[in-house]
Known about the structure:
Blueprint: E1 7-13, E2 20-25, H1 30-40, E3 49-53, E4 74-79, H2 81-91, H3 97-110, H4 114-122, H5 125-135, H6 141-154, H7 166-177, H8 183-196, H9 201-210, H10 213-220, H11 225-241, H12 244-256, H13 259-268, H14 276-290, H15 294-297, H16 306-324, H17 333-347, H18 366-378, H19 380-391, H20 401-415, H21 439-457, H22 465-480, H23 487-496, H24 499-513, H25 519-546, E5 548-553, E6 559-567, E7 573-579, E8 593-596, E9 600-605, H26 619-627, E10 628-633, E11 638-643, H27 647-660, H28 668-685, H29 714-718
Parallel strand pairs: 1-4
Antiparallel strand pairs: 1-2, 3-4, 5-6, 6-7, 7-8, 9-10, 10-11
Helix pairs in contact: 2-3, 2-4, 3-6, 5-6, 5-7, 6-8, 7-8, 8-11, 10-11, 11-14, 16-17, 16-18, 18-19, 18-20, 18-21, 20-21, 20-22, 21-22, 21-23, 25-27, 25-28
Amino acid sequence: MPPPKDVVKIAIQMVGAIPQLIDLQQTKPLASVLKDVCDAWSLPNAERYALQYVDGRQTYITESNRGEIKNGSILRLTTSPDQEAERLYSGIQSNNSDVKTDSLKKLASLSQDVTFAQEFISRNGLKQIFYIVEEGNDTGEMLAHTLKAFMELMEHDFVSWETLSAAFIKKIVSYVNMNAVDASVQQLSLSILENMVPTSRLLFDLVKKEVTLDRLLTHLQVTNAQLQLKAMALLIALLLAATDAERRDMMDYLREKNIRQFIHKNIIHSSEPLGDEMAHYLYVLQSVSLNLCERRMRTSMDPYSQEQRELLQSLRQTAFESESESPASNFSTERRRSLCAKEFRKLGFVNNSNPAEDLRRAPPGLLALDNMVYFSRHTPNAYSRFVLENSSREDKHECPFARSSIQLTLILCEILHVGEPCSETAQAFYPMFFGQDHFFEELFCICIQLVNKTWKEMRATQEDFDKVLQVVREQITRTLSLKPTSLELFKTRVNALNYSEILKLRQTERLHQEETLAVPVLELRERLKPELLELIRQQRLLHLCEGTLFRKISSRRRQDKLWYCRLSPNHKVLHYGDVEEGVRSPPIESLLEKIPVADMKMLLVGKECPHTKEKSSGKQNKDVLELAFSIVYDVEEYCLNFVAPTRYEFCLWTDGLNVLLGKEMTSERTQTDLDVLLSMELKLRLLDLENISIPDTPPPVPKPPSNLNFCYDFSHAEQ
């Protein structure tokens, strides 16, 4: 009989005793189970004992989690959580330092268990931990165990972080700010502060005031990877809890201290591999930094703002300074306005009489204006070349700088998730972000030149604007996915990914989507090929049996005579002979000439054929060369020369003759037909797998069982 579902077979161990193998009835109270176990080992006071997992986190078994016990689990009979909590509570108050250290070490281990933690906290155990930290002077192993136990106990959320005393917090801060402290103590202290920061504004202000950014930067520069990680965690916690103004000030200060360059050199490119946790913190730092652009991105241009109008005018003046600076002063207001409108149109603004209207859309808002101004000031040559090159093109082929810049800024904001909240798990940061201070602006400078390059490659007109920007978006996202380590490398790769490459990649991906390039499908293709090639061979031979009408070409290249050739139904003889005009399919008996297939020696094509050896020029000769083929037969002195009426017939006949000669079919038509047949056959075979992703590798075959004694014996049930 199979065992009941509410019974699990487990082993129970105890130091110095032979293990028990029992059937644990899940419906039976845990106290009764413990009593039975203790009775088997002749142990009194069963209420003082508990069961605990041997492996993993060594969790205590309770009525609430006993359902998680699986068949084959190994448990340990140990002291109950309340007894252990009482013992350790006394131990951490001992005057004997060894006993106290051992008790704190044990406490740090057991505090991971929620049942034990509840018992220890209920005995006011945290108060004793606070006392050890606040009053103690130890900065070594004992303190590390104390802080570890505190962290584990606080993880269960029985006590609020806001209840911590000022003296305790001050002590924790002092461990972070001290130099002569054990690294493990500093790591734990940083973790405690990190957990405190998000819980209340009061704690955030306290930590921000006491632990300076300079101190955190000092911890980031150590070689201890764990200490570096905890320092980064606290820095990120402070940035996330700060207000927008505070965050901006903090990021400005970090920029002054060259934190990006340090991270790029010492963390991203360190000899140690980057862990998932550090990758997440770098992603958050990148996200927080990029989100500083959000305010400008969501702010529309104010046409009455003197500062914003001056920025807009600077774009025009930088591009057309030589043209407009001297004569403009002599123009009337109306003429000057007309000249400005013309220049703004050349800059690519849609509303050239009032270009501020183009920047009223938010996003990208003023961020687009900032990017254009940055491009014009930091790369003036590239800016002037872009504007002047396009203003001198035909109207329909000019790439509008301003319109492109506004749309490109929006695209970059979407790709880089500007203004979006940070993910709690994401790790997708860009290494090149940390190698450049003005990352967003510099990226824009590269990408706006890419827009112009792609525009020319696509020979685009104004109607193609959206299509060009769609291609540019694809170029950027594909290059970013390669995680280039610097903007220079990004620039090289994105420029190499031209429009023709994008088209090739799209075609490849389309094939992937149809799953024609999946490894199992490719294997299936290879298996189907022989069968389908045989089908093509049969079709070629069938076509030869039906025969084709050819024209004879004289030495003067006059196509004045017709002849017909066909293969006998048994594929052994090639019949041919002259026919009159208008005869479509003469009977095989009327074709008097014969060539046994067994006498055929070779197939010649193109220039190798005897009837193409004579020199001739012009289009006709070229056409004859492409359609000519010959059969060499008997003693290799005789040839039957053909000029196919079409390329299609040429392919079918050369393939068919190669089949008769026992050779591979080599025409381009063979590959085309094979691809069509394979595609159709694959689609038919994969119909049942529609919308199901096919893995590249088959699932692993499970190991055979250790024994095969799992068959149910029905003979016992019948008795």
